[in-house]
Design brief:
The complex is a heterodimer of chains A (508) and B (202). Chain A is built from 22 helices and no strands. Chain A is mostly helical and 508 residues long. Chain A is globular and about 55 Å long. In chain B, 27% of the residues lie in helices and 22% in strands. In chain B, strands 1, 2, 3, 4, 5, 6, 7, 8 and 9 form a 9-stranded mixed β-sheet that branches. The longest helix of chain B has 21 residues, at 2-22. Chain B is elongated, with a radius of gyration of 23 Å. The chains are: A mainly alpha (508), B alpha/beta (202). Chains A and B meet through helix 5, helix 8, helix 9, helix 19 and helix 22 of A and helix 1 and helix 4 of B.
Chain lengths: 508, 202
């Protein structure tokens, strides 16, 4: 028996999320309908975060949800005008695609009644969403809840009175999948025929469905998948900027949406964001003031939004690191200005490699100072190799697939994606280290409930795109040669490439 | 060579898929979706994780209920150095929902009264976990089995008065309950005031 009243309320809310999200994307200069649809929930989430922080900052706690409705409705109205007058095709397809995702998400709850994996963190997310956010309380009375983030419970709280916006969790997951397909196609559009790309999507998709934690993620009430979506949007922006050799408004918008999403999804998200921003900052083709200005935006936003969140919610996290929220914001702005300036150009190519070396050294230090280094190192073995954490044998399959897909015959973009995948995987224990004073620990423990085990989900989108691109190129190579239309070039990992492809610009 | 690699990939992916589906530990079992906080307390698989939201469920299903004997204290006759015992209901939802707790007294103990626990449990309307401390000598992990019971399917008329009760010690694990006052007096055949409080040697 379908409960129609809350379903219709959720449907209306999802319609506003979709319209305002697509409108926001169009305003940022995105023109690809599948990107517009896939990123709509993230755009809407960013509007939710910013309107909430603004309401908190002025002490107007009772306006936090009304502010989102007003801002989103205004954005949606702009979207309707933009779509009707100028972007009928792009906007129309984007809304249709988003509508499909939204209806599928609603169906998981109201038609198929798919429940959620039980977890104490999910209880916290529900409490925060319904009691604090829907209750429009002063966040400082709530107590520390930074670890589980702001963005996800804020979206959950958009549901009918006393109820979650239940469809938003599957919507985020389905949006991530659409983003994977969109980015995978962007990376292979010029080099792999459509049929082999679709076969690749099918192979990676069917295999993913066999992985227990992947299936559970559809409805799991936690911010990990939202984090994965934010990470993928940052990576997408970087890959497309690298391809076109320019950092423009659409790219800055895409990266900024990803940065704000990932920074506010979980408190340690800033570490992952920082690593990806270092990758962006190490692109040596940055030369014009326009490039530098647009790259400054997401880097500065990362610290500003984090400090705004922690400051407005009365968090003790800045104090625990001996800094104030304002100082974090100031240092980030100055640091962002410095890192995009010509002063750094001579060593720009070193930024990302040096960071990777630093991560490896810090992780090695964790092992060296551990009482039982082998036990520390192997603490995730049971999770990702023996499948205790819900990963089945996905990690081993990924490793073997990377070997069998080959390296020399793969494109430069595959190399870059694989490099980023490995980097993000290393970043998981690195980010976890920041939970502990003295930067120790970070390798977690056995089981689904270990947060490191679930933080591997943050890499889900980027790893999936890597596999989609790798399999698509491999299938093209295996297939009879008549349908080969081209091949990716480059044989070495090149995250600072200044190669400008003549590929169709699919962000703007 | 390429064909061999392709064949190896097929074997790896099919084999891994079979392992993932049929041999690897699974995470999902069918359960109803959660739409609200009280759903968390009343859905069977969430009970082990919902010790902080029982009061949320109670606020919806027993509106304006009062809660007595829900304090934590060292029993009057305990030896020196004894730990405080009791039931911890004062969770975050309870504070936000401003529930009416009387914490001046610790729970009553019916765990040694034959048949009482089972008679009370027969009227159970909610079960799960709760934060607690039962033993005066050794610190626990702070979690007890928990249930709430009242007569009938839903309270009508006057707001309920729910009494904190220790219903089981040891055996299948310590258990505490919130029992509607009239039901408790009917089953124990004693006024609540004459029931023994949690004490030493539990």
């Amino acid at each position: 028996m379908i409960d129609w009243a809350p379903l219709l309320t959720e449907l209306l809310t999802l319609a506003v999320i979709g319209l305002s999200g697509v409108a926001g994307g169009l305003a940022l200069g995105w023109r690809n309908p599948f990107l517009l649809a896939a990123a709509a929930v993230a755009v809407s989430g960013v509007v939710r975060v910013i309107t909430t922080l603004a309401a908190w900052s002025f002490g107007q706690y009772s306006l936090m949800t009304e502010a989102w409705w007003v801002a989103s409705s205004a954005l949606a109205a702009v979207g309707v005008v933009l779509i009707a007058l100028k972007f009928r095709k792009e906007g129309g397809v984007a809304l249709l695609a988003f509508g499909g995702l939204a209806l599928a998400a609603l169906a998981t709850k109201y038609v198929f009644a798919i429940g959620e994996r039980h977890h104490r963190d999910s209880v916290s997310a529900v409490e925060t969403a319904l009691l604090l956010f829907q209750g429009e309380l002063d966040p400082t009375v709530w107590g520390p809840e930074e670890k589980r983030g702001l963005a996800f419970p804020l979206m959950l709280a958009l549901g009918p009175d006393g109820r979650l916006l239940s469809a938003v969790t599957p919507l985020i997951f389905l949006s991530l999948l659409l983003a994977v397909v969109w980015l995978g196609r962007e990376m292979t559009r010029e080099t792999v025929p459509t049929r082999w790309f679709l076969w690749s999507v099918a192979i990676v998709g069917v295999f993913s469905l066999t992985v227990p934690i992947f299936r559970v993620s559809l409805t799991y009430l936690n911010a990990h998948v939202l984090m994965a979506l934010g990470v993928l949007l940052i990576v997408a922006g970087g890959l497309l900027a690298n391809r076109h050799g320019r950092f423009d408004l659409p790219t800055a918008g895409l990266v900024s949406i990803g940065v704000i999403t990932a920074t506010t999804a979980r408190v340690e998200g800033i570490v992952t964001v920082g690593v990806l921003l270092a990758w962006l900052a190490s692109m040596t083709w940055l030369s014009t003031w326009r490039d530098r200005g647009f790259l400054f935006l997401p880097i500065a936003l990362s610290g500003v939004v984090l400090s705004w969140w922690l400051g407005a919610s009365g968090s003790e996290v800045p104090d625990s690191f001996g800094v104030s929220a304002l100082l974090v914001a100031g240092v980030t702005i100055v640091g962002a200005a410095l890192v995009v300036s010509p002063l750094v150009d001579r060593v720009r190519f070193l930024l990302f490699p040096l960071l990777l070396v630093g991560i490896v050294v810090l992780l090695a230090r964790v092992l060296v100072v551990a009482e039982d280094p082998l036990a520390e190192l192997m603490s995730q073995f049971n999770n990702v190799v023996l499948g205790y954490g819900g990963w089945g044998v996905a990690a081993a399959s990924l490793g073997v697939s990377l070997i069998l897909l080959g390296w020399k015959s793969r494109s430069g973009e595959y190399h870059l994606l694989a490099t980023l995948s490995v980097t993000l995987i290393m970043t998981v224990p690195f980010a976890k280290m920041f939970e502990f004073s003295g930067l120790v620990g970070g390798f977690g423990r056995d089981g689904f409930y270990d947060s490191v085990n679930r933080m591997w989900l943050h890499t889900l989108g980027v790893v999936a795109v890597t596999m989609v691109v790798g399999f698509a190129e491999f299938l093209r190579d295996v297939a009879p040669k008549r349908q080969v239309s081209g091949r990716g070039e480059g044989t070495t990992p090149d995250y600072t490439s200044n190669r400008v492809s003549d590929a169709k610009d699919s962000v703007s | 060579m390429l064909i061999l690699r392709a064949a190896a990939l097929v074997v790896v992916l099919v084999g891994a898929g079979v392992v993932n589906l049929f041999l690897a530990p699974q995470l999902y079992t069918p359960r109803p979706p959660v739409f609200s906080g009280p759903d968390l307390a009343s859905t069977w698989e969430w009970r082990g994780h919902s010790f902080g939201v029982n009061t949320w469920w109670l606020s919806e299903n027993a509106p304006n209920a009062t809660f007595t004997h829900v304090g934590v204290a060292v029993p009057d006759n305990a030896a020196s150095g004894a730990l405080p015992v009791g039931i911890l209901l004062d969770d975050r939802p309870a504070r936000i929902l401003e529930l009416d707790f009387d914490t001046s007294s610790i729970p009553v103990d019916v765990s040694r009264m034959p048949g009482v626990r089972d008679a009370l449990f027969a009227k159970e309307v909610l079960k799960g976990n709760i934060r607690c401390q039962v033993d005066t000598f050794s610190p626990q992990d702070g979690r007890c089995d928990f249930f709430t019971a009242w007569e009938g399917s839903a309270p009508t008329g006057e707001p309920l008065e729910l009494v904190g009760v220790l219903t089981r010690v040891g055996g299948d694990g310590d258990e505490m309950a919130l029992i509607e006052k009239n039901l408790l007096e009917e089953v124990t055949r004693q006024p609540v005031e004459s029931l023994t409080l949690m004490g030493v040697n539990q």
